[in-house]
Amino acid sequence: MKFGIRFIGYVASMREIVRLSVLAEKAGFEYVWYPHDTFMQNTWVTTTAVAEHTSKIKIGSVGTNPYTTSPAEIATYIATLDELSQGRVVLGMGLHTEKMVAWTGIDASNYMTATQEATAIIRALLRGEVVNFQGEQFNWSEQCYLRFKPFRDYIPIYICPFGEDYLSLSGEIGDGSLPMITPPDSATYMVPPIQAGARKANRNPADVDIAGCAWLSISRDRGAATKVLRSMISYFGPYLEAPALACIGLTPEDFVPIGKHLDASRYAEAEACVTEDMYKLALAGTPKEIIQQIEKLAEQGITQVNLGGPLGPDPEEAIRLMGDEVIPHFQ
After folding, report:
1. Which architecture characterizes domain 2-69+159-229+282-329 according to CATH?
2. Angle between helices 14-27 and 43-53 (to 10 degrees)
3. How does residue 178 score in pLDDT terms, banded at 50, 70 and 90?
4. Which of 56, 31, 23, 59 is nearest to 324 (CA)?
5. Which end of the chain has the smaller Cβ count within 10 Å, N or C?
């Protein structure tokens, strides 16, 4: 099992997130990821700062979508950051929901086509090719090529999918897949289509790193660990897909009251609607309990746990507990 940590902007200030990222490297995490969500803090700025303060950990964005950001900008970003970090960049291309892109008036309903074309374009640019590309989403001329030589001509691209067809596509074209395993039990739904997609492309499924994006809240106090999840669940719960929720007996309708409060910016009221069953959306509890939950994910085919969310009541303590007790268990 590989370990990644995912920092969401509301966990701390940007300077604090950079400091926590350094601690994550020291704790033994192999990857550090940053969600590239619409209207949240800019991932590219954050990853640049982290690259300058770390030396080993691989640095990636999650949910870099080809709608609000052109593949031209994505390619130059990862190539430049890869040079700065001396070959430590990974890219999470795609989107876990088209709803946030739709806020901007952009129709993202062809997300599979856009992801597939953007991935092919970015890889060709990194190889130094002229990308005179004529597709359904992108139409580029012979002037489309990098005006500099990348540090590497191949940077791993992980696909951020949702829904069975998109999950399958991630197995076909991705170096890895970044499905949201919220709840963790939904790994049984997420993994098979990814592996089937790999086989469809005549690839060995074992060559696709399935980096399940889970929410984590770890503490020696289990009650404190679950309590801190309320804001995370209330904000993102309405965007989770029905097949994943069904794995713990929930439906999108269970989140309708929360969604109504969110639409009216009544965040405290939204948190108050979080039920006991909704805590099952996350990996939560003591270090021993987290180890047991991650062992279950490994049995289900997850090869990297990408741990985000609140991390715990105290993010620094959460990183320390992971580094002292959880990660060593799997080594």
Report:
1. Alpha-Beta Barrel (3.20)
2. 50
3. very high
4. 23
5. C
